[in-house]
Amino acid sequence: MIVDRLENWPKYFKAPAWRTAFEYLQSLKPDAAECEMTPISGDDVRGRVMKYLTRGPENALIEAHDRHVDIQMSLVNCEAIDWYPRASLEVHTPYDPKDDAVMFKRPGPSPVRVINLPCFFTVLFPQDAHLPGMMCGDLAEEVKKVVVKIRADLAVL
After folding, report:
1. Taking every pair of C-alpha atoms in the chain, what is the biggest distance, in angstroms?
2. pTM score
3. What is the C-alpha separation between 121 and 134, in angstroms, rounded?
4. Is residue 98 helix, strand or coil?
5. pLDDT over 90 (residue 156)
6. Please, are residues 61 and 106 in contact by the beta-carbon 8 Å criterion?
7. Which residues, 6 or more positions from 147, have their beta carbon under 8 angstroms from its beta carbon?
8. What residues contact 60, with CB distance under 8 A and at least 6 apart?
9. In whole angstroms, what is the distance from residue 4 CA to residue 27 CA?
10. How confident is the model at residue 59, as a pLDDT?
11. pLDDT digits over 52-85, tens only?
């Protein structure tokens, strides 16, 4: 997992897929329209803008991906993303290649919590199991965020 300010992305990433992803992220404004997963560079880099209410961890499932790296960034308000080491978790729903997702049971509080604010990004690799959409404080709020997916085999640092 990597967390940093948006303007610092070139310190970490040199491959073309990263440049494509971060140029897209930098182009988005808070009023960006919601969209389903949309090709940015064919199937290599795709993005989705969404809005939802943040929530508590009750009955939440942790996710991880095999074929994609996620870049998550809030556009409006904040959400917490709980991080877990994938290898330590118990599978709830086996890997679905169609959705590129495996779901895990939440064992309790996460060892790391990221507060995803506008102008910050969180990169989640296949080994990074994550639980997005968590409340930053005690109250749910509507967050608008973007998720960019990069094919993992193209996501060389």
Report:
1. 40
2. 0.96
3. 16
4. coil
5. no
6. yes
7. 47, 48, 50, 70, 71, 72
8. 106, 131, 133, 134
9. 17
10. 83
11. 999 999 889 999 999 999 999 999 999 999 999 9
For 51, the token pair is: 């809005």
CATH tag for 2-154 (out of 3.30.70.260, 1.10.10.10, 2.60.120.370, 2.60.40.10): 2.60.120.370
The Cα 101–Cα 121 span in angstroms is 21
Tens of pLDDT along 14-56? 999 999 999 999 999 999 999 999 999 999 999 999 999 999 9
Q: Which residues contact 58 (CB under 8 A, 6 or more apart)?
A: none
Q: In percent, how much of the chain has pLDDT > 90?
A: 97
CA 104 and chain centroid, separation:
16
Which of 131, 129, 126 is CA-nearest to residue 153? 126
- Residue 30 contacts residue 144 (beta carbons within 8 Å): yes
**85-115 b/e (C-beta count within 10 Å ≥ 16 → b):** ebeebeeeeeeeeeebbbbbebeeebeeebe
Say if residues 89 and 105 touch (Cβ distance below 8 Å).
yes
